[in-house]
């Protein structure tokens, strides 16, 4: 009798024990080391660290019940591309410089240049075509200019280009593509010019559109430069192109309009025209671009030849800032010169904004 009771109790206890083990949560496995591609460099204690190109990252914190069997190092850095055009006294591009020929300063302090490249850098370009009522006189001139530009500058094996029309609103007529024929067809299918000109708003949209594009980001504006309706200010526009690492070139058609009407270069410099001129010059100056004001097709060809030469012959310097967490959102000035070469003109961006995140 006692033996039977003992066996029954043992049977019940064994089942309870088995059930409790079945419901016990599994142990949390120790996570595998994060590969270097994610930007976090994992270095086991028994190995020596190797240098890797830094990239933005967030270092995960180990949980309380996890063992820290190695050292995790967080490296945070954002590439700042610095496009540079170097010209001699005759205005010709200087193309034989090396990385050691340049001297970079950030906020007045010497800084290291990591890499230098030239024509092998792919271009990601947005062309803004002014299709407002203010350019009726230069409409055909602008259309031909845009077509010639795409045919001359875009390298289908490397580059991508997008096309915007600008009037009261901004319309993306052709997303980024390497197909020049599609770009030309989009231009030829434009409606007749009409409406106001929201040029600054359009520039900001183009800069934000290029934000995620890998390569050298370039905005080319074909316009008289006037703006009659934008919500954005010039300061906000400059900040947008700087923050998105865009270089701005302008083919300004106002001088062509004046020459066609008066037979003279220049024409009536009223307040509105002068303001447009200053806006375009400032955008180009701050980003290392240029403004061209052709009065006929010969000068138009010269302008596009110059832009094409700059995109293929200019240098792009790579600068990787050290930890800038305390300067998020701030503007940092860029100063660049060529050592041991006299009488050279160096044109580059004036600075960059430290990302807020």
What does this structure look like?
By secondary structure, this protein is an alpha/beta fold. 31% of the residues lie in helices and 25% in strands. The strands form four sheets. A six-stranded mixed beta sheet has the order 9-8-7-10-11-12, with helices on both faces. Strands 6-13-3-15 form a four-stranded antiparallel beta sheet. A four-stranded antiparallel beta sheet has the order 5-4-14-16. A hairpin with a 3-residue loop joins strand 8 and strand 9 (170-177). The longest helix has 21 residues, at 2-22. Residues 1-76 have low confidence and may be disordered.
CATH class of the largest domain: Alpha Beta
Largest sheet data: 6 strands, mixed
The overall average pLDDT, rounded, is 80
In total, the number of domains comes to 2
Find the CATH topology of the largest domain.
Answer: Rossmann fold
Overall 3D geometry?
globular
Low-confidence segments, ≥5 residues, pLDDT <50?
A: 1-76
Proportion of residues in β-strands? 25-35%
Distance between the termini: 77 Å
User: What is the tally of beta strands?
Assistant: 16
Walk across the major sheet and give the strand order: 9-8-7-10-11-12
Name the helix and strand elements from N-terminus to C-terminus, one letter apiece: HEEEEEEEHEEHHEHEHHEHEEEE
**Which architecture of the largest domain per CATH?**
3-Layer(aba) Sandwich
The CATH superfamily of the largest domain is identified as von Willebrand factor, type A domain
